[in-house]
Amino acid sequence: MKDKKIQTIMIAATCLALAACTEALDKAPDGGTSFEEIFADNFRTGAFLNTAYKHIPSYANTWWFTTRGPVVASDEAWDCDDFDWPYGVGPSMYNGRVTSVGYPMTEEIGDGNATGNFYTRFYECIRFCNTFLEQIGDAEVSNEADRNRWRAEAHLLRAWYYSELLRWFGTGVPLTLHTTDDETADYTKLTKPSYLDVTEQILADCEFALNSPELPWRITGGSETFRVTKALAEAVRSRAILYAASPLYNDGQDLWERAYRINMNALQNLRDHGYELYTTIVQTGVFRNDLDHAGNIAHLPNRYAAVINEYFTGNQTFTSSPNDRETIYTSKAASIGGNWNIEGPGIQGDYKCGSVPVQEMVDAYETTDGKPVLDLANPYADEQHTRPNYNPNTIYDPANPYDNRDPRFYASVYYNGSKRTAFWSIGETPECLDNYAEGRGVPGRRTRIISTWAGEPQTGIHSSNRRLTRTGYYLRKFLGPNSGNDDGSNSSPREKLFRLGEIILNCAEAAAEANHLDSAAILVNQIRERVNMPLLDVPNSLSKEELILRIRNERRVELAFEGHRYFDVRRWQTPDGDLSATDKWVTAMEITRNTIGNVFTGYTYTRRPVRPIERACYTNRYLKAPLSRNEAARLSMLTGEKWQNPGW
Question: What's this model's pTM, rounded to 2 decimal places?
Answer without folding.
Answer: 0.93
